[in-house]
Amino acid sequence: MFEDIPVEVGVVHEGERIRRKDMYLELGGPDVKEKFELVRVLTPDKIEDGKIQVIGPDLSQMGEGTSNPFGILIEVAGPKLEEAIEGVLERRIHEFSNYLQGVMHLNQRYDIWIRISKRAFAKGLNSFTFVGKVLLTLFKNELPIIEKMQVTFLTDPFRVEEIYREARKIYDERDARARGLTDDEVDTFYGCALCQSFAPSHICVITPQRYANCGAISWFDGRAAASIDPKGPIFPIEKGECLDPVRGEFSGVNESAKNKSLGEINQIYLYSAFGRPHTSCGCFEGIAFYIPEVEGFGIVHRRFPDPTVNGLPFSTMADSTAGGRQVEGFHGISLEYMRSPRFLQADGGYRAVVWMPSEIKERMKENIPADIYDKIATEKDVSTLESLRAFLEEKKHPVVQRWKKELVAEPVPEGGLQVFTAREVPITQGGIRIILKNARITAEKVILQPLRPQKPKKGEGRG
After folding, report:
1. Coil, strand, or helix at residue 295?
2. Which helix (H) or strand (E) holds 123?
3. How far is CA 179 from CA 190, 199, 219, 220, in A?
4. Up-side HSE of residue 4: CA atoms within 13 Å toward CB?
5. How far apart are the C-alpha atoms of 366 and 339, rounded to whole Å?
6. What's the CA gap between 362 and 272, in Å, rounded?
7. Phi and psi dihedrals of 16, rounded to 5?
8. What is the gyration radius of the CA atoms in the chain, in angstroms?
9. For residues 269 and 275, is the Cβ–Cβ distance under 8 A?
10. CA-to-CA distance for 346 and 170, rounded, in angstroms?
11. Does 11-178 match 183-402 in CATH topology?
12. Angle between helices 219-228 and 157-178 (to 10 degrees)
């Protein structure tokens, strides 16, 4: 099928990681502002079936080690295709691109990040035409409802910027159409396994009020995808019994997670970052991260280039969040989820959010409660945890009410000599400060030893 492609093509290459030292070049990514992938459903007369075009420099004309503006525009036609399916087809670009040996595709929509390896380029993968042929073949083979298709790769910065603006408008319109339905009104959620090649135990659970972490798949998209491709990576999940309406735990979701993760994950809270939080792959749009020093959450999105208020950049926290694990306090999210009434519902929602980039705060202005908006700090207000704490105290943020520094004595339980609890116990050891939150310490024996200054050894002064 792919005899004229210079590298291997197959599912075996999904999940391949290309590190910077092995990279020939990258397309999009964190160093490039404008990048996108967009699928449009058109009438058949507007499509030249099988056409592949490159607007701007081709791969062979780009410099080694460079990061480049990039866009993929795929236009399709077929009597069973509707505009509502565009987002679903768009997300399959991620899957099919990763079938190419030496190609790593991450993220989605306006956050795509593609790397071509040095080895693949040396083998002859030096033109987007090869990538286009693979996409055309896989899309039409996997989704027979596509009758005509053409692919355009854009690398010219001016054309990329032009269509990028159009794409952002289309994404926003899609998201707006998906709002309104609630999780209580449906019996079926949807799961997405597109990222299991990178995170084997991860399944995105998509509900009306919780978008896929990548921000590209709504509940309506999930329903459409499962309908047109029943054996595909997006599938229905029977919601089952609601076990915890606050944390968002459902028996059907738990069962699905257990089956799809081969027993690795057996319990999920959809509306909390603690306990059994939803797993994360690596394509999430943002991270909700807990800041124990102030007992609140920070939010950071992929496009924020600087260290956050806790001193860590997005990339560092992404390593702690991704991989299909359940990591308490590090929660991969879509930005659309931040518009949901279920957003971190069990943890206090926006009343628990203390910091986010100013760009996101402005985008979410209509969704953040008016009495909280000015109490959430941004990079323009604070740069350290100390200044954040002062800001929150000055603004009387709700989290301030949780701060209790004093130790609270409790009765001695059976089997223990001494017990005390504290909201915060700082420990400094080896240059590292460890803070135990909500600590309860029990000891069988307490030994008090006075500290005496050591005598200097013979020949040593006190200097």
Report:
1. coil
2. helix 118-123
3. 16, 28, 10, 10
4. 8
5. 9
6. 24
7. -65, 130
8. 26
9. yes
10. 32
11. no
12. 100
CATH no. of 11-178: 3.30.1650.10
The domain locations on the chain are 11-178, 183-402, 404-457
Tokens linked to 83: 């505009």
- Choose among 69, 91, 89: nearest CA to 154: 69
Angle in degrees, 0-180, between the axes of helices 128-142 and 86-97, rounded to the nearest 10: 120
Fold of the 183-402 domain: Ribonuclease HI; Chain A (3.40.970)
Compute the distance between CA of residue 363 and CA of residue 345 in angstroms, rounded to an integer: 20
- Give the dihedral sign, CA 60/64/65/68: negative
Q: List Cα–Cα distances, 441 to 292, 304, 438, in angstroms.
A: 19, 39, 10
Phi/psi at 163 (5° precision):
-80, -25
- Residue 149 phi/psi, 5-degree rounding, is -155, 140
- Identify the sign of the CA torsion 340, 379, 279, 220: positive
Per-residue pLDDT in tens (0 to 9) along the chain, 463 residues: 788 999 999 988 987 889 999 999 999 988 898 999 999 999 999 999 999 999 999 999 999 999 999 999 999 999 988 888 898 899 899 989 999 999 999 888 888 999 999 999 999 999 999 999 999 999 999 888 999 999 999 999 999 999 999 999 999 888 888 788 899 999 999 998 887 777 788 889 999 999 998 888 889 888 888 888 888 888 999 999 999 999 999 999 999 999 988 888 999 999 999 999 999 887 889 999 999 999 999 999 988 989 999 999 998 888 888 888 888 888 899 999 999 999 999 999 999 999 999 999 999 999 999 999 999 999 999 999 999 999 999 999 999 998 864 334 445 455 544 334 334 444 544 444 455 555 555 555 555 444 444 444 444 443 3
DSSP state of 364: T
Quickly list H helices, 289-408: 314-321, 358-363, 370-373, 385-395
Provide the whole-model pTM.
0.71
Amino acid at 364: M
| In contact, 361 and 351? CB cutoff 8 Å | no
CB 103 within 8 A of CB 116: yes
- CB-based contacts of 458: which residues, under 8 Å, 6+ apart? none
